[in-house]
Amino acid sequence: MDLSSISALNDRQTRSISPENFTGAVGGGGRATGGTGAWNARDLGPGWKISPSVDIAAGETFELASIEGAGWISHVWITTHTDNWRTLLLRAYWDGSTEPAVEVPYGDFFCNGWGVFAQVSSQVIAANPHGGFNSYWPMPFRTGARLTLENTSDVQVRVYYQITYEVGGDHSAEGYFHAQWRRSNPLADKVPHTLLDGIEGSGQYVGTYLAWGVNSNGWWGEGEIKFYLDSDDEFPTICGTGTEDYFGGAWNFDVPGQGYTPYTTPYLGLPQVIRPDGLYVSQQRFGMYRWHLPDPIRFRERLRVTIQALGWRSGWRYLPLHDDIASTAIFYLDRPTAHRPATPSADDLEVHLGTAPVPDLGSTPPRAPRA
After folding, report:
1. By the 8 A CB rule, do 329 and 208 touch?
2. Continuous segment of H or E residues that includes residue 108
3. For the residues 356-371, what does the mean pLDDT come to?
């Protein structure tokens, strides 16, 4: 973080939206007389944590924040049960747009795409025990902002959140924050996974998160990431040298004697390694992030981003893989909307970790498997 401006005085004002102040109004916090904590505070009355969270019914969309005027969102803290991390869809709309600039599964946005907690200690995303998710991505807007959370599951979900923002300021020269999610499950034969496609305008690419599920034995990360900028057609301007290389690692993330070794740093990391358990969790799964904060990838007309999935076969030949790859691509653009993929369905989002419970036929009825 650049601390050079932290002491500068300006005319902006800080506001915060939470279940204790749904509008962020001045003096509007702690006034609730009803809410999810009302019964717990029955002996204390107003001002004593009466509305700390919200319940989102199955299939419903809840408006986390609606802000009018110019400003920027500086921090989002949010938490819910791990079962909900892939069933909630986070969206953000800027300046009255009806199309979202952000449409990403809740867990993937916070670098926890597998519904299993992983500590993330980066400059813009922090995931802390046990599921305290924080975003410090700057999200400026000129006339207004709206954030929502859709519950795609068939059960009610309880969510705690707080959104901190500033009102005022001139943001006309700043790009709009965008985040897009795509999944290849499984990846088609000899076809790269697409992170972004059809992005038009001027801006900068600033971040990648991948939830990568391996569907074969052996090393899986020989593939290159490619950035097709502006007039690029068949060949890209920027071409990486390997998957682990792009995420700042080397030699298969394999420390001799330790195997895959997780790490989390301000700009890049492999915070999650899910290993087979010898029973229902049969495949390896990984979570990786790369933030282009000191090194944004700038484009002026258009952008496309892809990554290959390659392993090894006999004779030291590359083997195209058919893995489960879910990507979250983050960029700033000179407009509040961009070409984006179709909204994923509940089946598109579902994580299959093979954790179906074994029923106890002697006491209780069998339970339905959890996603």
Report:
1. yes
2. helix 106-109
3. 38
